[in-house]
Amino acid sequence: MIEVQHLTKRYGPTTAVDDVSFRVERGEVLGLLGPNGAGKTTTMRVLTGYMPPSEGKAIVAGYDVFDQPLEAKRRTGYLPEAPPLYPEMTVRDYLAFVARIKGVPRTERKARVGSVMERTRVADVANRHCGKLSKGYRQRVGLAQALLHNPEVLILDEPTAGLDPKQIIETRQLIKDLGGDHTIILSTHILPEVGQTCQRVVIINKGRVVAVDTPENLTSRLSGSETLYVQVDAPGAEVKEALEAIPGVTRVAPADARGSLVGFEVNSETGRDIRRELAAAIVRHGWGLLELRPLRMSLEEIFLHLTTEDTAAEGAPDSPSAPPEEAVHE
Ligand SMILES: Nc1ncnc2c1ncn2[C@@H]1O[C@H](COP(=O)(O)OP(=O)(O)OP(=O)(O)O)[C@@H](O)[C@H]1O
Ligand SMILES: [Mg+2]
To answer: Which CATH number fits domain 224-314: 3.30.2350.10, 3.30.70.260, 3.90.950.20, 2.60.120.10?
Structure first.
């Protein structure tokens, strides 16, 4: 349904997208994941025909986005990073206007605008001027305009940016519901987001694809060794020594200190669950176990792993990896 072949985009001396290739099957929801400046928006702008690529090509719904731009655009709904709204228009008028431009037949426009406003939950601001909307509502109106002509393909640039937690959940659900009937690419830099909405993920970093996989495979592949956070009510040095003595533990590093309490990050061999031994050891010493929970990898850590994967694979299996900068504590 979407095919990106050796796409490269340069802005002067900057290579924003560097030889990127991937496919999205019909009905699939694909996450384009990457840090700021990775090239997500640039890729999407090329895919939606807003910019020509420097090299390579993109085919959307069977049409080359540059040779047959109108055919491709007709089948694509695009939520840009900053949705282009007309500040003087009300939400309803704006959506009716977009529906007209996108060729929704006159007799269907009103019903279409109404149903899209319901789906994206903007009906309560239907009569408000676009210029007076909060960021979250702007984003939702942007999503509404992308859906108006019921396109086969949806390209959504950070669809949940600026939304409150309730709206994030609703928007993710909406995207999931839209998948199946629609083929969707969404961009994000939030890893849990792709886990919840996408079937497959393309991770890009500095314009290059560094991984393509399902969210599950990615997290388990990249987690490699398991990490636990442990907080014990006892002297830090003694705790560290005791934890290091547990079979399967590969690394114990102080994570934080709150008064006399010290938290540790404990790494263990891949696939080895050391929680029971760990709890037993702490109890055996007569210490108080205040906290014990798994630490998930953040996107930053996953990037760290992806960019150092080759060296990590070649190095000694027991060699300590760099301490994570920031962990997602869940
Ligand atoms: N119009 C432009 N002119 C010059 N350089 C640009 C332009 N747009 C983007 N870039 C550069 O291209 C690279 C990729 O930018 P892009 O906006 O595609 O990243 P992104 O993954 O969408 O990042 P973000 O998460 O911040 O939205 C960056 O180095 C950026 O500075
Ligand atoms: Mg962007």
So the answer is: 3.30.70.260
